[in-house]
Amino acid sequence: MTDAAIAVLSDAVAREDNPHTWHTLGRCLLQVGLNEDAHGALQRAIDGYGDDAPNDLYARGAAKALMDDADGAFGDLLTAGTDAPNLLSEALEDADYLRLSEHPRWATIAG
Fold first, then answer.
1. Residues 6+ apart with CB under 8 A from 39
2. For the residues of the chain, what is the DSSP string, one character each?
3. How far is CA 94 from the centre of its chain?
4. How far apart are CA 5 and CA 48, in angstroms?
5. b/e for 29-48, b at 16 or more Cβ within 10 A?
6. Which CATH number is associated with domain 2-110?
7. Where are the domains of the chain?
């Protein structure tokens, strides 16, 4: 049943092709232990977000955090925070970014 549900959800996400939806699918797949499938969905999200706006960079960094790409996540977050400092404080409560709270660079965000 789980495989069928994931297949239906993945098909719906592919038709919509929205980075936020890919991000959500990736997060869900991680939660059920389908890490390899999650990485594919998260990579689609990362590719779709782009880097034109602070909110896009923030979201892209959050997806990278889910993929355990700490350097990429922190790079995107700090770049986003340059133009929108409020995003740095939002990251302190964001479950995707909190996965990196044990990383030495977290202190640059948490102050």
1. 26, 67
2. -HHHHHHHHHHHHHHH--HHHHHHHHHHHHHTT-HHHHHHHHHHHHHHH-SSSHHHHHHHHHHHHHTT-HHHHHHHHHHHHHH-THHHHHHTT-HHHHTTTTSTTHHHHH-
3. 10
4. 24
5. bbeeebeebbbebbebbbeb
6. 1.25.40
7. 2-110
The whole-model pTM stands at 0.87
Look-up of token digits 């986003």: 80
Q: How long is the chain?
A: 111
- pLDDT string in tens for the chain (111-residue length): 466 666 666 676 667 779 999 999 999 999 999 999 999 999 999 999 988 899 999 999 999 999 999 999 999 999 999 999 999 999 999 999 999 999 998 887 877
Tokens matching residue 76:
């995107």
